[in-house]
Design brief:
single chain, 5 helices, two-stranded antiparallel sheet, alpha+beta, 3 domains, transmembrane helix
Length: 180
């Protein structure tokens, strides 16, 4: 008989929703509720242990539902940060805060939590430069092409990244990276 080792990536578990915990929490809650109702109907007994066990199951189920719901909400927020950092290449903490519609301290707290939990591998938050730093950031910046473009409206120079259209910092006119 040969056994095959099942390899699991612990990082992939970070991105999974907690539906199992949510379902078991609901099951425990209703199991406790059913036990409590059956104990309350038997009013001739003076033994409250069944009621206490029913209430304990209800609280345990509610705690599991709360924990799973909180984890799922955090997961959605982490996915949003993932999209901004890895897909759109936003490394400025101020830009992340604006994109997530959060304050600077909330964004710092979220990013610290992401680094601590392993969502942002090999990255750190530099509070002095207000940037995310790390191996991925330096590789990404090396691949990105940008150049200075003079605005035809006001004449100001603006840095434009390839494949992006940005507004002029001064007059708001749309500027696009061209290969010429």
């Amino acid at each position: 008989m040969q056994f095959k080792k099942i390899s699991t990536n612990p990082k992939s578990r970070l991105y999974q929703r907690k539906t199992g915990r949510l379902v078991w929490g609901v099951v425990l809650f209703f199991f406790g509720l059913f036990g409590l109702v059956t104990e309350v109907q038997d009013s001739y007994r003076y033994d409250y242990s069944g009621m206490i066990i029913g209430i304990a199951f209800m609280f345990g189920g509610l705690a599991m539902v709360y924990s799973a719901t909180k984890s799922n909400l955090n997961l959605e927020r982490y996915h949003a940060y993932n999209q901004l950092i890895f897909k759109r290449g936003i490394f400025s903490i101020d830009s992340l805060a604006r994109s997530m519609d959060k304050t600077y301290p909330e964004t710092i707290q979220d990013l610290d939590q992401l680094v601590r939990k392993g969502y942002l591998q090999d990255m750190s938050v530099n509070r002095d430069s207000k940037m995310i730093e790390g191996l991925f950031v330096s590789k990404y910046k090396a691949q990105v092409q940008s150049k200075m473009i003079r605005c035809p409206g006001c004449g100001a120079s603006n840095e434009v990244i390839q494949h992006e259209t940005i507004p002029c910092e001064y007059c708001g006119r749309k500027l696009k990276y061209t290969d010429s």
